[in-house]
Structures are given as C-alpha cells and as structure tokens.
Amino acid sequence: MKLTPSPFAPQSFPSLPEVKGLRAAAGSRGFYARRGIVRDDVFLFAFPDAATCAGVYTVSNTASADVRWCRQALKAGGGKARALVAHSGNSNAFTGPKGVEKNEATLAALTTVLGVAKEACFLAATGVIGEPLQDPNFVGAFVPELAARLGPPDWEACARAFMTTDTFPKGSGRTVELGGVSTAFAGIAKGSGMIMPNMATMLSYVFTDAAIAPDLLQGLLEQVTNETFNSITVDGDTSTSDTLMVFATGGAGAPPIMSREDARFPAFAAALHATCLDLALQVVKDGEGASKFVTVRVEGAASQHSAKVVACHIANSPLIKTAMAAGDANWGRVVMAVGKSLEPIVMDDLAIWFDDVQVAKGGARAPDYDEAAASAVFAKPEFTIRVHLGVEAGAATVWTCDLTHGYVDINGAYRT
Q1: Are residues 335 and 406 in the same domain?
Q2: Of the residues 183, 201, 295, 400, which is catalytic?
Q3: Domain limits at 357?
Q4: Fewest C-beta in 10 Å: which of 150, 188, 233, 286?
C-alpha cells in the first residue's frame, strides 16, 4: 500500500551517538517480495562481550511466540544478552507449533554462528498476525549472512528494517556524563497503528554503553515505561508483539551502577527516560492517518492511576478523535469521556481547557466561553486538552492523535 508521510515526519533521521560494545547489520530476507517490494526487513545486533538487559512485553493473552521466548530468556539468562534479531512482515503471533519451530531454528543459527548461549539471544517479529512461515528456518538461514556483515550500527537502516505501516524511521539518542565518563544512549522504535501499549510499545530497543546491574535496570525500565510508552495511544488496541528492551554493554569502561544510591543513577535514569519519551512521542506523531498530535493532561484526580484512566478515555474516544480531525472544538465530548470513565469526580468543580482557552468551569460551560477561540485551538496541528476533576492531587499525561479517514484506508488495505 502507498502511505502518505506523516505531517510530523522529521526532515532527516537523527544523528545517533556511537554505543561501544555492540555491532549490527540489516538486510532483506524477502518478507515483502510477494508484494513486489524489495527492502530491508531483518536486523541483527550482537554484543561480543555480553550486555546487561531488561525488558517489558505485551500483557496480551495472545502474545507472539517471540514475546513468549523473550520472557523466558530474560529470566533464564539472568538479564544477560549476546544477540538480538528482529524482522518485519510477519508477527509470528497465533502461529501455533510453527511459531515455536521458527524461533528454535533462528536460535540454533545464532548459537552456531555466534557461539553464544541460547538464553542470551532475543527475538522479535512484527507484521500480519496468524500467518505461519512455511519454512521454519526462513530467518535462521539468513543469520550467517547478517553475521558476516556485522559492524558499527547503521541506525537508520536498522530503524527502517522493522517498519510496517510507519511512514518514517524513528530514532533518538544522546550522550551524557556519568561520573566523568562520556556515555552514549541510542534507541530505535517502530509503530504506527495497533497502539495502546499495556507494558511498552510495539517494538523498541534502547542501547547504552553504561554498565548497570540487571535487576536495577529492570526496575527502572518498568518505571520509565509507565511514564512514556504506556502513556501513548493511537487507536486503543494493544499489539500481540509489544516489546521494549534496553541493553547496557558497559563499553564506556566505567564500573557498573549497582544501586539507586549511586551518584550516577539519576543522570542514567534521566537519559533513559528522555530517550524512551522521544521515541514514544514519535510513534504517536506517526499514528496511522494522523494529522493532529494532542496532549491530554488530567489533574485533580483521586490518584495518578485514576487520572490516567480518565486521560485514556479522552484520548481513545472516537468521537473526540474525529472532532480533533475536523477541528471541531466539541468540549461536550470531553465531558462525556470523563463521565464514562467511572472515576471519581466533583462535577460542580469540573473544568476543561483547550490550550489556555477555558471552555468549562464549575461543572458547566465557562461564563466567558469563546467558540472562535476554542475552534482556533482545535485547528492547530498540536494542542493540549487539560481537565481538572476537583477531587485530589492525582495527575497524569497521555499523548494521542486524531482519527482521520486515512486510518480506515490504511487498515482496510493492510493485507492487500
């Protein structure tokens, strides 16, 4: 299918820093050949000296075979990684025994070619659900060729290799000082539709040459995820393949961070958070058919959890999302979404703003309500919907996009 580039697509892929202690290669296995498309669709990352890793995965009851393997490997391997393989064009989800066979063949190739333990290898797949590969070794047979080409990562090539309906490759990176040592963070992500993560995001990987204890990294990743990838939505659907992993190679040469009391930990946490948030927002800005990028901020809730529930009801409402697309500042639909959340509110204190334009106050339309001013906000490509519930001090932010006919066009033609 021909995809219209997102209006928020950057002019170029960002320049990401060198992350010491890893090698990578991307290539074409032909997953899209039947559609007459030749493109890279597989990447391999290798960690010659091993890397500490952490991961969060979809909570879907129909999780892919790759997600199920990664959960198992993360536990069995004690948070150590030597290789990562991901491909697009087929999700390997709901594929029964053939999905497991595909993984076993790929893992056998990695252990043979790279000489590493099976439990130190991680897999991912994204694409159409329910279509088993006829050849279980389809990916595994390509591993030797990828391994022969391993070198410094071409971040953009890797970011493009696992795109599906994405209209631009997504990358983010930064270099920070940790205890006087220059430390790199670089991440890539894919995602455009089937986006309302309930753990992490579609597929996203962050790499750093810092050293950190596995359990400490896992706890931090879960915290960061809730504030970034778990706070975005395009269409309210959670993927069978959602995966977010972080790999810390230790290549910068500094001693590992072993506790939150380490003076370097806050800067490490901030860099990981910034990288994940940037990638998460890029996913929303590339939402299928999106023309608006909208921040939903809920304050005055009974708790942070309550605020997030309300924010998600607003962000996922088809009525609100289509109003965004049309530039219709129908604030009554926001009132509807707040009410249907069933979260505690003080209706007589409920207030709503579109950017700085107050449209509702004291449980009713604002006395100085200005339709033209509200409509001008909804006409902008980026704006904020802010709601105060009048209960306690709980607050949360969710990022979303509008719902246009482009979303219908893309998903109606997804398999053709």
Answers
A1: yes
A2: 201
A3: 293-412
A4: 150
